[in-house]
Amino acid sequence: MKTRRFACHKLVLLALLSVVCLSAELVYAARVKEFNRSGQLVVTEKSAAEPQPAYDIKNRPKEKTFAVPRPPFTEGVFPCSQCHNFMPPNPQRRTLTEFHTEIVLHHAEGQRWCTDCHNLVNRDKLRLVSGELVDFTESYRLCGQCHGDKFRDWKVGVHGRRTGDWNGDKQYLLCVHCHNPHDPKFKALKPMPPPDRPGKTQH
Amino acid sequence: MSDTKKCDNHVLHKSRRKVLKSLAAGIGLIVLPGRDASASVWEEFFQKHFRELSKDELKGVIARLEKEYSKKYGKQITVKTTPPIEGVRYGYGLDLSRCIGCRRCVYGCVKENNQSRSPQVQWIRVMQLDKEKGIDLSHAEHYYNPATVPEKGHFYMPVQCQQCEKPPCTKVCPVQATWKENDGIVVVDYNWCIGCRYCMAACPYGARHFNWAKPEIPVAEINPNTHYLGNRPRPKGVVEKCTFCIQRTREQPGRYPACAEACPVGARKFGNLLDPESEIRYLIENKRVFIFKEDLNTQPKFYYFYAT
Which residues in chain A are closer than 8 Å to B287, comparing Cβ atoms? Predict the structure, then answer.
């Protein structure tokens, strides 16, 4: 009887110990076991929760700005505020009948509406998803929100046309110089004349 | 009998001398330039190979050429001899996923590099290929001319001099009139070229072109900014080729080649292969790149890539 009780005690102790050990294992999840140069096992324990710097939306590094030519506005349309200042802002999705009727949205039109990119109140600015307002001359940041891969290539000069000096000042173009932001697919061009066929006497 | 024989011999002897004399005079008359021909004809005939010219001799050659061209085209034409920039090796990138085959590059090049309009010489050739077949040269079409490009189911591949690291064309030149410069550009000395066209046969890219007739360039369209090894007006009977716009790109700062500037879709990229920050290095390191006819081991410095 006595021995049985003793065994019972032992079992309980063992169970407790194993629980403690297991929990310890869980707490110190980042335990690194290494062999040092002399072949001894070294166990270093790192706290599982390394302090992370808090993401500070206000102190983000500023996006580099690029010198670009004037955006290709339709004649007389900019600044937008010259008309829009005298209109109540209407965020309602609708078919435009009076102005801007030439704009046919063919750019993820199912998910998008004018004021997703154009700021509702200050019409002379564009609006990023974060709520930040950017000028039209910085519209590449707006495009870059979705087209990050193209934006990255554009920044290093691999996407888009570059003119100027290969080892000096390069002229960048805005996305909208080649792609109509409301219908961005590059438009087909008329090809220049084909070369003369051999044997064609021309002299 | 013996007298007459003697006499005959004498006559024969005399006439042979006469013939030789008149022959010499005749040849002399033919070879001698006319009295009104300037000394430049002599100078041109006896001009040395470009790389053997001393500084003073080069100055004389350039002065002669500038005078000749300026007179011919009625405006000041400069001929530069800018040497390669130290630490520069040019590389070219062409984005096949962007090119739409509009041939703007072809005509930009013709204008910049004073290529003959008639008979037509074009350093860039654009091939229309089937998307289904890929780069299958037996299905390449050079003479496509639809209303608009790109056409459905096709892609376009412009071909020009690939500026090979191991150029087969320079190897076969019997007079060494073409060679690879230190910045990787393969050039031709038009004054040394004998027009044998061996290099054209050796080039696997069809990048070399021969002036079958006197090149015709409209006076109004001549580009007065020229380089001796590049776009200076060429005579009849010499071979010419793309030089990555040597007259532009060897300057500091140097403009992009004319074809890169003319491309409306921005498919053409240019830069220094030795500069890790350059566009060309970025695209080689980050994009899917291939070189044309890699199996020939010509090691082109013209990189076709797909940005998407």
Answer: 158
Q: Are B21 and B12 spatial neighbours (Cβ–Cβ below 8 Å)?
A: no
Number of domains in chain B: 1
Suggest the residue from A167, A176, A203 to mutate for an interface test with chain B (most B CBs closer than 10 A): A167
Q: Does residue B183 register a pLDDT over 90?
A: yes
- Determine the distance in angstroms separating the CA of A200 from the nearest CA of chain B, rounded to an integer: 9
The tens digit of pLDDT for each residue in A184-194 reads 999 999 999 99
Contact B249 A166 (CB under 8 A): yes
Q: Nearest chain B Cα to A156, which residue?
A: B279
pLDDT-derived band of residue B1, with 50, 70 and 90 as boundaries?
very low
Answer yes or no: is pLDDT of A36 > 90.
no
Q: Using the structure block, give the residue that is written with the tokens 């000749």.
A: B68
**Spatial CA neighbour of B124 closest among B278, B271, B262, B227:** B262
> Is the CB of B144 less than 8 angstroms away from the CB of A191?
yes
CB atoms B256 and A197 under 8 Å: no
Nearest in space to B101 (alpha carbons), one of A171, A196, A186: A186
Taking Cα atoms as reference points, which of B240, B239, B268 lies closest to residue B256?
Answer: B268
Residues from chain A contacting residue B102 (CB–CB below 8 Å): 189-192
- Cβ A190–B269 below 8 Å, yes or no? no
Eight-state DSSP code of residue A60: P
Query: What pLDDT is attached to residue A57?
Result: 63
Test B119 with A203 for CB contact under 8 angstroms. yes
> Quick check: B111 and B223 in contact, CB under 8 A?
yes
pLDDT at A52 over 80: no
For residue B2, tell me if it sits in a domain.
no
Higher pLDDT, B71 or B18: B71
User: What is the pLDDT confidence band of residue B163, given thresholds at 50, 70 and 90?
Assistant: very high
> Tens digit of pLDDT for each residue in B274-303?
999 999 999 999 999 999 999 999 999 999
* pLDDT the model gives residue A6: 64
Residue-range definition of the domain harbouring residue B242: 50-308
* B263 and A CB contact within 8 Å: yes
With respect to residue B284, please indicate whether it lies within any of the assigned structural domains.
yes
Domain ranges of chain A: 2-45, 81-178
pTM, 2 dp = 0.79
In a domain, B121, yes or no: yes
Q: How far is A125 from chain B (nearest CA, A)?
A: 28
- pLDDT tens string B95-111: 999 999 999 999 999 99
Mark A55-73 as b/e (b = at least 16 C-beta within 10 Å): eeeeeeeeeeebebeebee
Interface touch B266/A191, C-beta < 8 Å:
no
